TrEMBL record:
This is Glutamine amidotransferase domain-containing protein. The chain crosses the membrane at residues 12-32, 39-57, 659-677. The keyword Membrane applies. Gene3D superfamilies: 3.40.50.880. It comes from the Bacteria. Keywords: Membrane, Transmembrane, Transmembrane helix.
Amino acid sequence: MTGEITFDPLLPWTVLAVLGAVVLIAAGLALWRGLAGWALRLLAGAVIVAALAGPSLRQEDRDALSDIVLLLEDKSASQKLSDRAAQSAEAADLLEARLTARPNTEVRRVEVGDGPDNAGTMLLGALNEALAQEPRGRIAGIVAISDGRVHDLDRVPDLPAPMHLLLSGRPDDWDRRLVVDTAPAFAILGEPVTLKFRIEDTGNAPPGLFEVPLEIALDGQEPSRVMVPLGASFELPITLPHGGRNVIQFSTPEMDGELTGRNNSALVQINGVRDRLRVLLVSGEPHPGGRTWRNLLKSDSSVDLVHFTILRPPEKQDGVPVAELSLIAFPTRELFLEKIDDFDLIIFDRYQRRGILPSLYLENVARYVRDGGAVLIAAGPDFASAASLFRSPLSAIVPASPTARVIEQGYRPEVTDLGDRHPVTAGLRGEWDGDWGRWMRQIEVDPQDGNVVMTGAEDAPLLILNRVGDGRIALLASDQAWLWARGFEGGGPQLELLRRLAHWMMKEPELEEEVLTASAVGQDMRILRRTLEDVAGPVEVTSPSGETVTFEMQKVAPGQFEAQYQGAEIGLYRLQQGEVEAVIGLGPAAPREFEATIATGEVLAPVIDPLRGGVLRLSDGVPRIRDVRMGRPASGRGWIGITPREAAETRSVTRIPLLPPWLVLILTLGLILAAWLREGRR
C-alpha cells in the first residue's frame, strides 16, 4: 500500500493564485490597521483557497512485478562452426537457470537464426521484436550469446537496460577465406577478362605462409592449380570458352585447424557474349530477296557485314573493260583462304558456280564448317542447275541434293512436327497474327542428312538444318522469303525466322536444340530441358556435398521439359540427363555468414557501451550475475549486472479528501468567529 497527496482543483490554478494573493493582501491590510484577528482571518482565507485546490490522499494497492531479462541465443550459420553451438547452448542453459533462481526475475529466451536472402545474422531485429512484446519498465537486462558478427546495425533499438555480449569461440581461432573483389557479369568471347581476388587469414593464424594454392574449375571440369600470394590482392585473366553462362569455381584447400572451409571457395558466373558478329554475304545475282538479307543483318548493330553481289556474269561480253566491272576488286583469295576463319557466318544467296570461286576456295569453305564455322544457302533456281553449289566440294556438307525440279506454284510454308520442337521454328506460329502469306517458288530437294523443320509445296522439304563436325549448315530451298517482308497476302514472321536461323548458326546458347539449362532465384532452381525427342528422361542433380537426387521432368511445350528443385546447400550443383549436362551455382558467391567468422565484440560495441554493458568470452566461463543501479558500470571481470526495476501493478486506487466540505465550513466559520470575538474584546 502506497499513499501520496494529490490535488484536483475546482478552479484553474491561475484563479487560485489570484485568490491566494487577495487573501494575503486582506490579511496585510488587517495587520496594518492593527486588527488583532488578522492571523485568524489569514487562516480562514487559506482554508478556503486550500479547499478549492481539492487536496486528497491517494492510496494505491500494488502488487510487485518481476524483472525481465532477455536472453538472445544466436543460432545462425556461423554459430555452427567448431564447437560454438554446444558451447553457446550450454552457456544459455546455465544462465537461464541462474537468472530464474533469482527472486522476482523472469527470463525471455529468444533464438536468432539466419536472415532471409543471405541477410546474415539479424540479432538486433530480433531484439527489437522482443522489446516490443514486453513492458520496457520491467526490462532489467539483455544478454546476447553470439560470435558478435551481426548484420543489422541499422536497427539499433533504444535500450531500457544494459546489454551484455557473451562471445562464443576460442581466442586461438583462425580462418582463411577467399574474397572476390571484382568479377564482371558479362565478358566478350575471345578476349581475356580480369578477375581480382585475395586470400587472407584472420584470427590467430599460423605464421610463415606467403603463398597458397588456388584451384580453378570451369563448368565443373577438372580444376587447374596455381600458386598465389597470401594476404594480397591479385589479378587473374580468364578467357571464356563459350557463349552463355560460364560457371567458374575458385577454391583454396582447407587447412588443419581453420574454422571452416565454406569460405575457401567462390563461384563466379559470367555470361559470355560476342563482341561483333562477322557475316559474309555473297549474292549470286541481284534479286528482291538480296535486299531482305542485307536489311536484316544491317539492322543488328552487333553485326559486321561484308556483302558482295555479282552484278554481271563472266560469260556476258559487252566490251566493258575489266577494270570497270566492279567498284572494287572481289578479294576472293583474302576472303575465302586467308580471312575465312574470321567470319561467324557465310551466306550464299542464289549463288551458282561461275568460275569466280575456284574449287580450292569451296573446299576451304567445307573445311571452315567442319572446324566450327557456319554456312547458310538460300537457294533459288541456280541450286537446281548444272552450276549448283551442290555440284562442288560443298556437296560433302550440304544436307540435301537437288532433283533439278523447280516448283513454280503458290504455297504456305508449314512447320513440321520436328520443327515444333526445334528452337529455330518452335512457337513461330505465335509470332504472327493471322495466316502466313504464300511463297511462289521452291526448289525440290532430296534430304540426305539433318533436320527438316519446315515444308512447302507438295510437303517438300523447305528448311533443313544440320551439324557438320563442329560447325553448322542450313539450306533454305526457296528465294521467296522476301514476300513476307513485303507483306504479300498478309506477310509472315520473316524477320523472326531469319533472325533465329542466323543466331542458331552462330551458336547462340538460347537456340541450342539439345541442351539442359537451369536458372536460380535464391535456393530455388528451375531446370529446363530442350530436346528434339518426344520424351526426356529423368534428370540427376548432384549437390555440392555429393548427394544425388533423381526426378522426372514435366513436359511444358513440344520439345521442352521443366522441373523445379530447391537446393538446401549453397554452392555448385551438377545436372545431368542422358548425354547432356550443366552446372549452376545456388546462393551467393560468398555467403554473408562466412565473410568474417572470428568472434569479436567490436561490431556491437556502439550498442553496448552507452549503458556500460560488457563483452566477455564464454571460453573464460559463464559470468556471475549482480544487481547494479542504472548508470553504474554493469560488468566486470567474471560478472555482468542487471538493474532491478521494482515495477509494480496497481490493483486498486482510493482517494480520501483532506478537506471535505463540512470540515471546510466548520474551520472557516470557526476562524472567522474567533477573529470577530478577538477583535470585539478590544
